[in-house]
Amino acid sequence: MSVAGDAARALGLFTVVRLLGVVALAAAAWATGRHPLTLLSRSWDSLWYLGIAAHGYGLTEVYGPGTAHSDLAFFPLYPALVRVATEAGPWSAGVAGLVVSWLAASVAACGLYALGARLYGRATATALVLLWGLLPHSIVLSMAYTEPVLTAFAAWSLYAVLARHWLWAGALAALAGLSRPNGFAVAAAVLAAAAWEARGVWRAGGKVTHRLWTGAALAPTGWAGYVLWVGHREGDLPGGYFEVQRLWGSRFDLGRGSLRFVRHLLLHGDRLVFPMTMVIVAAAMVLFALLIADRAPLPLVVHSGVLLLVALGGSGFFECKPRFLLPAFPLLLPLARALTRTARARPWHATVVVCALAGLSFCYGAYLLVVARTPL
Question: Any transmembrane segments, and where (predicted)?
Answer without folding.
Answer: 12-31, 91-115, 127-146, 166-196, 208-229, 272-293, 300-318, 352-372
